[in-house]
Amino acid sequence: MSMPISGPNQATNATTASAPKNKGGLEGIVAATTAISKVEGNTGRLIYRGYNIHDLARTTIFEEVVHLLWFGHLPSQQELTNLQQRFAAERTIPENVMVALRALPTSTEPMDALRTAVSAWGAVAIKGQPTVDQAIALTARFPLFLAAFNRLRHGQEPLESKPELGHAANYLYLLTGEVPSEEHVQGLNAYLVLLADHGMNASTFTARIVASTESDIASSIVAAIGALKGPLHGGAPSKVQDMLHEIGTPENADSWIRDAITTGKKLMGFGHRVYKTTDPRAEELREMARVADPQGFVFTRRVEELAISILEELKPGRRLYTNVEYYSAALMASVGLSGDLFTPTFAVSRVGGWTAHVLEQAGNNRLIRPEAEYTGSTDLAFKPLNER
Fold it and tell me: Pfam families annotated for this entry (predicted)?
């Protein structure tokens, strides 16, 4: 069964002569048009197809949000039920993927295992141009791939999914073998909603570039996973946890933060390329962390308050505030995830947005082919090999 895509699909190049001068990292360059999400950096707002992220995080589940991203509207009860049934039907791991996962050393990073599994699955399951059916199949399988590898590396056999469980609950079950508490399911669901899309970030742009070549959806998503893995994009949540462990106590926080800033050490979980105020996703995650781990929250919040104050003191005018990664670490730890599963779980969420952008790109495609400002020599005199 094929599901149609609704909503505008417009993607264009920005290579006109009037385009702003490159500041590095394509800052200020408009590379596409999209109807999927909007990031308002100065006011700290994130919009998914017209809906404020605060409303979605508090009232929807992940399956509703990916329906919104793919089809352009929130689902009716029947549409949601249909999508959940589609997800449950796709919860299988082909034998070639299991062979690949079993062959990986137990020391393999889960993000690398996820990339490998998606590539192996795509090699046998994906043909032709991107479709929403393929997006559903990919998104449904991300938790399976991760949970299967996580159990294998700990000497356990992968589990069969429970069709009666939703996306977030089934992921936690596949990891632990226990049906999760409602509190943990709600926390993970909210996290998945909050991270599902975020404008033209590095991994989404990567996915759209690959899609613009008319490659397949699996190749686009494998490339996006590679981009998300980097610590300057999605690879930082576990490093927030490491930083908090290194700080150790509230009494040590002030001196540790000051020393880190003055010596050029990066404060993990602070600052964002777009937001010039608190990341709205961090606001939601902060409240969830407060409920999930009241005792640990006191320390985490104290470090946050000190860091923002000291950053303004030592780097005035830079407007460096808490980003989504800071409280992501606390929330994911509270639902029982190990640190090296934080970024792959980010991918479990973001694959919804990646696939929506791939579909949008394919729907009105033009090859993304920007120019580069050349800074090398142009008139060197050539010498044959025997004269060099």
Answer: Citrate_synt
Q: Mapping DSSP to helix (H, G, I), strand (E, B) and coil, where does residue 328 land?
A: helix
Return phi, psi of residue 51, to 5°.
-100, 135
Topology, domain 237-334? Cytochrome p450-Terp; domain 2 (1.10.230)
- What are the domain boundaries of the chain? 45-231+341-363, 237-334
**Catalytic hit among 272, 283, 284, 357:** 272
Distance, C-alpha 279 to centroid of its chain:
15
Annotation marks residue 272 as catalytic: yes
Residue length of the chain: 388
Q: Which spans in the chain are helix H? A: 53-59, 62-71, 77-89, 95-103, 110-125, 132-153, 167-176, 182-195, 202-212, 217-228, 237-247, 250-262, 280-292, 294-314, 324-334, 342-363
| Catalytic hit among 63, 284, 304, 325 | 325
Is 325 among the catalytic positions? yes
Average pLDDT, rounded, for the chain: 90
Fold of 45-231+341-363: Citrate Synthase; domain 1 (1.10.580)
pLDDT tens digits along 333-351:
888 899 899 999 999 999 9
Contact 345, 62 (CB under 8 A): no
Supply the pTM of this predicted model.
0.88
Q: Which two tokens stand for residue 150?
A: 């996580």
Which of 132-146, 323-337, 340-354, 369-383 is predicted with the least confidence, judged by mean pLDDT?
323-337
Cross-strand pairs, 45: 40
